[in-house]
# Entry
Amino acid sequence: MDCYRLKFTAPFHVDSRGNAFYEESGSFIHSDTLSSAILATWALIWPEQMSQQAQTPSFRLSSAFPFYRDCSDRYYYFLPRPFRESVSPPDGWDMKNNKKIKKIQWLDVDQWRAFWTDNNWEYRINLKEDIQQGIFACRNKYLPEKLWLEEERPRLAIDRNDNQAAESQIFNFSRIWLDPNGGLYFLAVFDDEASRQQFETALRVLGDSGIGADRTSGNGCFTPSKGQIPELQLAEHGQAVALSLVNPAPSDCQTGWLEGSAYKLVSRGGWIGGSGIRKQRVRMFAEGSVFNQPLTGRMIDVSVDHLPHKVFRDGRGFFVKAG
# Structure
């Protein structure tokens, strides 16, 4: 397993809803978006390999989550808060605190371990000392006031068919600015060393061209680097947590496969690059979903008629051990 850090040199916009809702951008990058961007770049460099790579990529990725480097040069890697059944609060618990608990989205590695070793983690966490910015569970007091800021700019709509301005159609376009000492990181596994080297080449090229929307204006550019791997283990069996979006393969859907699971479903859509045509929408398990066994997942054919090639969405699972 490898870890890659993305230090953004420009703001980025990724469609968090997949339905051309430009007024809001996701603050992290889902695994299917990251995988598609890598494969599109791969096609530019090694077009002869794309028929095979598009259907069975030689890499498997997590989503790209936030990290921060503090003043002591220590890196904090944040993980999505896992889902699980709620437990009853202890006697004397102030129910007003529940709103604060529900807002926690990201856990650093220490809090991640505490989550799995304590079924009452939500009620034992120190709300004054361990919660940063309202959404991070982390004991580091040197986090900035905001790890990212969201900026909105007015834009004039452009017709996708004729590339002409649509009269009087103004909308707001949102961009995410990450703290200079922060960025996004993701985890990856590869079929072999050759695949790793090609992947890293494609990642560097992608960093120069940008990821997300509005790349022609310089958005989404980043500098990649190898990072220290968080203390996590890939899950081969037993209880596992998804660090990617997952669309289960038929072989995953055995009798009772969802018993004891805790998950959230998200709908994914978007546009097929350079065509002005929408992809087929699919539903996927979100990051932080927990299952009794890791799911393999699959590449999903989201092609539509009248296209000369097939289009796939990466729904393969990237799972780590719960704990």
